[in-house]
Design goal:
Helices cover about 35% and strands about 15% of the residues. By secondary structure, the protein is an alpha/beta fold. It binds ligand NAX, adenosine-5'-diphosphate and potassium ion.
């Protein structure tokens, strides 16, 4: 059966399976197929992709580990050799002590005359190295020769293709034991995921480690439930001609504390969220600045309407609270948590809630009152809410997003590379769009406004969060290289 790996693109929804479900899929498929079939399909897929990526390679170095991931590499070598290329295999296994599938591939590769070398070959920019060292069976951080080869692959000028996963990456969490090289240029490295796509390939360090993602299901349709979905753009609602500004809902942004006596102002955060809500199509956007503010007009976005908090009828609005809220946000949170029907909580709102058990309880009770809530923490804010460290959050982003969802019965947007969007009774989504150009002050405020506008227009909290996060990242992906990406540009994209 021919297999051509497919490129994974950001506009498609894909199910994501963890390592355990992938293992079960592999076992049940292997039980129904002739011996070695899956590895032969895997090796052929790797070889086809290798050829497509580097048709002019003079040398293809295949670094093979002691298990079945190495077996995939050996099988690929066989095909590449048949097609007249020059694969050079360095193998950490030995024929006496190798799993059955990998052993069969070793014999086939040896009999086909594949070149087994002691030392990795020299490679140039047109060449390719293939990481078939460890896959799902990685049990400890690579050391010795394996670590040396990984280092060599990360720094050599050729393209790199990882078989199934980059060695050392946890496919469940996206953490890696192998330092990834920040100077390596992602378009020059690739990962071919086999049988299933896994969550850790798309979050935490996964995106840096994997580069361009490819997928081959090896002709197997898994019967396993996914643990998450790769987020996709969703359907853009068309605006009926016979609509008016009331149809698209009202947003109020509450935040932007200023205190002249302390010489601080965070008005900008609230203005960014409000402008983003306006650009995202909200019918009317109000800004309620906290502290002693004398600002009543945004000359860049004069459509914004300024209101004191006590002059807002937030029972009829979607409220976005936190953006630059400072300490003063504590004064408005009890009322908002109790009565705002649709509420996005960001930044300082989350920090204040994290310190106050009564506000936490009030947040957790909103769901039973039929109120919709989206929390948009970055990892440190999530850690404060969970009373743990940011490193612990990052060590398992999916689990932390789920935990926040359970505790606060809210939709949760855990931000960062591979933003996780989770909601009660839903499978979480991992977002594939966005890049490190978003790592600049204020982009989170913009996201909060984008979510608020979608809720105001009638989307449920989870859909609003998913579509806003996708679009926010997509704006950054489309941004011209020569134009600096700033939060105010993101708030009002061209
Ligand atoms: N068995 C099959 O039919 C198939 C297997 N597949 C491939 O097989 C992989 C899983 O194979 P395995 O379960 O053999 O696992 P791996 O090949 O990932 O590695 C397991 C072996 O490596 C050793 N090991 C683990 N950590 C190490 C370290 N840090 N340093 C040195 N040695 C280490 C283990 O003791 C074991 O011998 C998948 O990721 C995929 O690439 C695919 O070909 C699909 C079909
Ligand atoms: N390296 C990155 N890759 C992808 N997205 C990122 C990266 N760094 C930051 N972002 C995104 O940028 C936004 C930053 O939000 P946040 O941390 O709240 O910043 P701020 O409070 O300054 O607005 C989030 O949407 C986050 O997911
Ligand atoms: K690998």
């Amino acid at each position: 059966m021919p297999h051509m790996p497919r490129l994974i693109q950001a506009h498609e929804m894909h199910p994501l399976h963890d390592a355990a479900a992938t293992r079960r899929t592999e076992h049940s498929a292997a039980a129904q197929l002739p011996a070695h079939t899956l590895m032969q399909r895997a090796g052929l897929a790797v070889a086809r992709l290798a050829l497509a990526l580097t048709p002019h390679a003079r040398t293809i170095w295949i670094a093979c580990g002691p298990g079945n991931n190495g077996g995939d590499g050996l099988e690929a070598a066989l095909h590449l050799r048949h097609w007249g290329l020059n694969p050079v295999v360095t193998w950490l296994g030995n024929p006496e002590n190798t799993p059955a599938d990998a052993h069969a591939s070793y014999l086939r590769a040896r009999d086909a005359g594949v070149n087994f070398a002691e030392e990795p070959p020299e490679l140039d920019a047109d060449d390719l190295c293939i990481d078939a060292l460890l896959g799902l069976g990685a049990a400890r951080p690579p050391q010795g020769l394996m670590a040396e080869w990984l280092d060599r692959m990360a720094t050599c000028p050729s393209q790199r293709l990882a078989v199934d996963l980059p060695t050392g990456l946890s496919v469940d969490t996206g953490s890696t034991s192998t330092p990834w090289h920040a100077d390596a240029h992602p378009p020059r490295h690739h990962t071919l995921s086999l049988l299933t796509l896994k969550p850790g390939l798309f979050t935490m360090q996964g995106r840096d480690a994997c580069g361009t993602m490819w997928f081959d299901d090896l002709g197997i349709v898994t019967a396993e439930e996914p643990v998450a979905w790769l987020n996709a753009p969703g359907i853009q609602a068309t605006r009926p001609h016979a609509s008016h500004k009331g149809t698209w809902g009202d947003v109020a942004v509450i935040g932007g504390e200023s205190d002249a006596s302390r010489g601080i102002s965070m008005r900008g955060a609230a203005l960014l969220a409000a402008r983003a809500a306006l650009s995202s199509g909200a019918g009317r956007v109000y800004v309620s600045l906290l502290g002693n503010s004398d600002l009543w007009l945004d000359t860049i976005a004069p459509a914004l309407m300024f209101r004191r908090f006590d002059a807002l009828d937030f029972s009829a609005l979607t409220s976005v609270c936190g953006c630059g809220g400072g300490e003063t946000v504590a004064e408005v949170l009890p009322a908002l948590l109790a009565a705002a029907p649709r509420l996005v909580l960001d930044a300082d709102a989350l920090n204040v809630i994290a310190r106050d058990p009564k506000l936490k309880l009030s947040l957790a009770n909103r769901d039973t009152q039929g109120h919709a809530t989206v929390l948009t923490p970055h990892p440190l804010e999530a850690a404060r809410l969970l009373a743990c460290s940011a490193a612990e959050v990052q060590a398992d982003r999916l689990a932390c997003a789920r935990e926040l969802t359970q505790r606060f019965r809210s939709t949760v947007v855990l931000k960062g590379s591979g933003t996780v969007i989770a909601a009660p009774d839903q499978l979480p989504n991992i977002n594939p769009t966005g890049n490190a150009r978003l790592a600049t002050a204020g982009t989170g405020d913009v996201l909060a406004g984008m979510i608020g506008a979608r809720m105001a227009a009638g989307l449920d909290a989870f859909s609003a969060a998913r579509t806003a996060v996708w679009q926010h990242g997509h704006f950054a992906d489309l941004w011209p290289d020569d134009l600096p990406l700033t939060a105010e540009r993101l708030a009002t994209p061209p």
